[in-house]
Amino acid sequence: LTNKGLKHLQEQIPFYDENRNWNNRLYLVIYDFAIKYNRHRDIFRHALSLLRAVKIQQSVYITPYDPYGIIQRLNKQGLPGEILISELKEKGIFGTTTNLKELLWEVYDLENINDRYARFIGRHSHYKSAKVKRQRMHLSFKYLAILKKDPQLPFSLLSSDYLGKEANILYKKLLKT
Question: What percent of the chain has pLDDT over 70?
Fold first, then answer.
């Protein structure tokens, strides 16, 4: 494989990030591109997805990862619209959700992802060595499908009952058997 091919392949296979460095800030990214710039908008949204940003309204995204660097690089190539980046503070949240963890739990649909992790753990924590060997690829696909949906938010933004880490530990254990 070429370096470019290897990088593309690695981007397709999710990995569990154990070092989720975070600067203790959340960012709102709001953009407006004219309809004739759909290609630019798609590139921009892809860049936001690399930051694990999630759409909370049309053209409004939230991310715990600093978007300035990647947006500045894209802007040097000429983005044909307006982009606003705002830092979100806990005291700036009003409505039915009044803290960051609850807000993120909702907008990232972490309850659904956590339920999937719980089912994975429940179904596979009792596997015996012989069964794991026969179903190793199947187990990998199941786990990686959940992991691909997991935004892997900074650990301090996750509730204590989030099962991502436990599922990862089980997955690694199953692969070693």
Answer: 92
